[in-house]
Amino acid sequence: MSIFNLKEQFAFYGSYHHDHRNMWVHIVFVPAILWSFWVMASLLGPLPGVSMDGCLAQTLRHLGFEPHLPFFMLVLYVLYYLVLDFVAATLYLPFLLTFYYTSTSLAATHPHALAIGAGVHIVSWMAQFYSHAVWEKRAPALTDNLSQALLMAPLFVFIEILFMLGYRPRFQAEVEALIESRLQQFQAAARSPTKSAKQ
User: Fold this and answer.
1) Cβ atoms of 33 and 25 closer than 8 Å
2) Structure confidence at residue 103 (pLDDT)
3) Could you report the per-residue pLDDT of 68-77, keeping only the tens digit for each?
4) How confident is the model at residue 193 (pLDDT cuts 50, 70, 90)?
């Protein structure tokens, strides 16, 4: 499954987030995980090998950025999302920039930024694991596709919101058909050990 195949990737993600309650948990807490990670990562300072007196650092600072991990993650997310879905990525860009500036600003100014970032991060992960266990009755997608959980989930929860607003209905129908197929395969696989045990 190519990381640039939006339909297949979204269907895989959707098969783990089919229950509407779990979906809303992720809509709230996936951005919270990204934001809180950027808070903590900002506290580490610039990436190794990046001189604060160098041209790169000076240029980034002039543009309102810092040469740390959150900035390079932001660039990666934006470029990757633009390839996956240009319109959705463009609509999501203001949110990503808001996450970036608020998280890095908190890290730079608040004396308890680490505690806040760590607290939000832990609570957000706990909420997602709980919702998977209780409502989806299966492990989170990160156990099968770590890159999707870390890289694609923020865009996917945003596209879920866009779907609610009528975005790309044909694409949504195609994805939902794939999700239903994946769910049937999962349910069949879950039943088969029980049948074997009875035999």
Assistant:
1) no
2) 98
3) 999 999 999 9
4) low
Tell me the two tokens of residue 96. 């990503």
Q: Which residues pair with 46 in a beta bridge?
A: 68
Q: Computed over its alpha carbons, how large is the radius of gyration of the chain?
A: 19
- By the 10 Å C-beta count (0-12 exposed, 13-18 middle, 19+ buried), 138 is classed as middle
Token pair belonging to 150? 């870390």
50: left (phi over 0), alpha (psi -120 to 50) or beta: beta
Q: Which residues contact 56 (CB under 8 A, 6 or more apart)?
A: 50, 67
Residue 179 DSSP SS3: helix
Q: Could you state, in order of their start, the residue ranges of all structural domains in the chain? A: 7-191
The pLDDT of residue 183: 87
**Token pair of 58, please?**
């000076």
Give per-residue pLDDT as tens, 22-62: 999 999 999 999 999 999 999 999 988 887 888 988 999 98
**DSSP string across 127-158:** HHHHHIIIII-S--GGGT-HHIIIIIHHHHHH
**Is the CB of residue 23 less than 8 Å from the CB of residue 17?**
yes
